[in-house]
Design goal:
By secondary structure, the protein is of the alpha/beta class. The protein has two domains: about 5-80, Orthogonal Bundle (Methyltransferase, Methionine Synthase (B12-binding Domains), Chain A, domain 1); about 90-210, Rossmann fold (3-Layer(aba) Sandwich), CATH 3.40.50.280. Helices cover about 60% and strands about 10% of the residues. The protein has nine helices and five strands, in the order H-H-H-H-E-H-E-H-E-H-E-H-E-H. The chain has helices at about 5-10, 15-25, 30-50, 55-80, 105-115, 130-140, 150-165, 185-190, 200-210, and strands spanning about 90-95, 120, 140-145, 175-180, 195. The chain has a five-stranded parallel sheet with strand order 2-1-3-4-5, with helices on both faces. Helix 1 packs antiparallel against helix 2 (about 15-25), helix 3 (about 30-50) packs antiparallel against helix 4 and helix 5 (about 105-115) packs across helix 9. The longest helix has 26 residues, at about 55-80. The protein is elongated, with a radius of gyration of 18 Å. It starts with a helix and ends with a helix. The mean pLDDT is about 90.
Length: about 210
């Protein structure tokens, strides 16, 4: 039944969703089809979160359900393609120098991960040079800078400037997120976009990398 998994996941019905996936696999449903349905279900969860119908605990719970589904699908997907599920692309995430807030950052890391991105989490209070060095090392096409305090805006600007000075600015898209971030802050820091929540970060990453 196409669409059943979309509904179960978007309605956060964990046991029913996992049972359905197992039954569908037993009946010979292609795992890639089920993975697409799961992604569609997550997109609906994101929409409900954006509209205020779901909250952060619901978002985290949906991610846990998705992890369970992927755990069931992964062996079959490997069997189909002879390799692991291909990650969409690399994203570097860091809470910038001078800021130690990590709840928002950790949620972004989690949601990017369950949506298929390879996330390089540099942690909190990350020096500008550390971010530039990691960018050179990994060639990640997306960098996410997080900061809750207003002083973080200067750190974000310094980081973007340092990426430009290293000759990497035209090879990378930079998103910022955290406390009171708006268009003005985006312009000040030189970032490409800002996100208000974890689902915004996922949408931007998909837009820039694909998937």
């Amino acid at each position: 039944m196409p669409g059943k998994l979309v509904q179960l996941l978007s309605d956060l019905k964990e046991s029913e969703a996992l049972s359905y996936v197992q039954e569908a696999l037993d009946k010979g449903t292609a795992p890639a089809v089920l993975l697409d349905e799961a992604k569609e279900g997550m997109a609906i969860v994101g929409e409900r979160f954006s509209k205020g119908e779901y909250f952060i605990p619901d978002l985290i719970f949906s991610g846990e359900i998705l992890k369970g589904i992927v755990a069931l699908l992964e062996p079959k997907l490997k069997g189909e393609h002879g390799e692991e599920v291909k990650k969409l692309g690399k994203v570097i995430i860091a809470t910038v120098e001078g800021d130690i807030h990590d709840i928002g950052k950790d949620l972004v890391v989690f949601m990017l991960d369950v949506n298929g991105f390879e996330v390089i989490d540099l942690g909190i209070d990350v020096p500008v040079q550390t971010i530039v060095d990691k960018l050179k090392e990994t060639n990640a096409p997306v960098v996410g800078l997080s900061g809750f305090l207003t002083l973080a805006f200067d750190s974000m600007k310094r980081t973007v400037d340092a990426i430009a000075a290293a000759g990497l600015r035209d090879k990378v898209k930079i998103m910022i997120g955290g406390g009171q971030i708006d268009d003005q802050v985006k312009e000040y820091t030189g970032a490409d976009a800002y996100g208000l929540d974890a689902m915004d970060a996922v949408k931007l990453a998909k837009q820039w990398i694909g998937g």
